[in-house]
Amino acid sequence: MIKKSIGLLAGMLVTVAVYAAGTQLRADHPDSYTVRHGDTLWDISAKFLSKPWLWPEIWQANPQVRNPHLIYPGDVLNLSFINGPRLKLEPSVHREGEAVPAIPLDQLRMFLKDMRVMNSDAVKSAPYVVGFEEARLRGAGGQNLYVRGLKSTPGQRWAIVRPTHAFRSFGSGDKSDAGEDVVGHTLDSNVAMVRTPWSEDFRDDGHYGRGEDLGVEVSLIGTAEMLREGDPSTLLLLDSTQEIRTGDRVLPLDGPAYDPYYYPHAPQSLPRNARVIAFADAMDAAGPRQVVALSIGSKDGVDNGQTYAVFQPGETVHDDIAGSSWDRGVGEKVALPDEFVGHVMVFRTFDRVSYGLVMDGLRPVHRGDRLELPQ
Q1: 337 inside domain
Q2: Which of 75, 158, 232, 361 lies at a C-alpha separation of 20 to 30 Å from 203?
Q3: CA 192, CA 207: separation in Å to the nearest integer?
Q4: Based on the domain organization, do 119 and 207 belong to the same domain?
Q5: Would you give the DSSP letter of residue 123?
Q6: Cα angle value 190/256/280 (rounded, 5°)
Q7: CA torsion through residues 54, 57, 63, 69, sign
């Protein structure tokens, strides 16, 4: 199949002159690029544009581009400048295979299908596992589970989930960020099901308070099929990724729908107190292609594809030079500027919390890092 260069990047670069104010070619862009397996649209755009999240806007201004996702491994983009910043596009033959995605969906499958964020009251009121056959302490595949509060019919399948994070906001209660902190608290799986820690008072810095509930993250750990109705009802555990415990919750198997495609774009406004609050697949810091939880959601106007700049709060130091004393550590306190860390793109939203993928970065992303509109 013959087609003219890769449509997405053709659209981006032909209109560089029109969008010069907002979008610029990188000074070190290559003269040509061959699309490879494992590339994403963000990766390719970042090789040519200083602001790779702007490619959808440029594509929309070019009606000759039919589909921004139809670029394939083997496609070649050739840059040749004629009479200024214009391009001569060479035809190319694309190889068979899947089109290049905007972001690596195969790396996000767990967060799209197996994890969700719910209101804490909905989690607490959900049906739960109360026991196992033969009075066992844990449940494994092929065994019966006994569940309270479940209304179902024989043959219906259900998801077994376990809360993994509780998200809470603490602060002054006003509309400013002053004095406000947002916490993503990792739940202790040894007691998470019985003591319902998502309702406990907690705060990472040791100061405790009830705070405002932002939601509870639950992870799919198994599937079960209803055998007999009743209270408790009997379910057969079909499979599980870990042992099932009393207190594990039972939810509909199909979670909220998610988008198959993503169009990175800058938000029109910045939600209040937008921060990184937890890591989904990291311990102390996250880097490119890792998932983070953000303290903003659909109720804040967040939608999939929104791209934010991440900033690390500047440290507070003592200005001993300007003070009257030469003793170190007693001078006026000065807050250093926040430092740019990288970019994060939202790929799944819930009411008050979102999942974002770190797209690039100069340094690791930490909890508490602040989100800003991309510059």
Answers
A1: yes
A2: 361
A3: 21
A4: yes
A5: H
A6: 45
A7: positive
Number of domains in the chain: 3
Same domain, 190 and 70: no
Between CA 150 and CA 43 the distance in angstroms is 46
CATH of the domain at 332: 2.40.10
| Co-location of 69 and 157 in the same domain | no
Contact, 196 vs 120, CB < 8 A? Answer: no
**In 26-119, which residue ranges form alpha helices assigned H by DSSP?**
41-48, 55-60, 109-113
Residues 124 and 234 in one domain: yes
Q: How many helices (H) and strands (E) does the chain have?
A: 5, 20
User: What residues contact residue 323 under an 8 Å CB cut-off, 6+ apart?
Assistant: 330, 331, 332
Domain identity same for 173 and 299: no
From 280, 278, 337, 283, select the one nearest 311 (Cα to Cα).
337
Question: Using CA atoms, how far apart are residues 125 and 285, in angstroms rounded to an integer?
Answer: 33
Same domain membership, residue 86 and residue 150: no
179 assigned to some structural domain:
yes
pLDDT tens digits, residue range 45-101? 787 777 877 766 555 544 444 565 666 777 766 544 433 443 333 444 555 566 666
Q: Quote the domain boundaries for residue 293.
A: 276-372
Q: Is the link from the previous residue into 30 a cis peptide, with omega within 30 of 0?
A: no
Given a contact cutoff of 8 angstroms between Cβ atoms, the answer to whether 288 and 356 are in contact is no
Show which of 219, 252, 285 is a domain's final residue.
Answer: 252
The pLDDT tens digits for 170-226 are 654 444 444 456 677 777 655 445 555 455 555 555 544 456 788 889 999 999 999
291 shares its domain with 361: yes
| φ and ψ of 342, to 5 deg | 170, -160
Question: Where a domain ends, among 70, 102, 134?
Answer: 102
Q: Do 153 and 122 fall within a single domain? A: yes
66 φ, ψ (degrees, to nearest 5):
-80, -40
Structure confidence by residue, pLDDT tens digits, 272-317 = 889 998 887 667 788 888 899 999 999 999 999 899 999 998 888 8
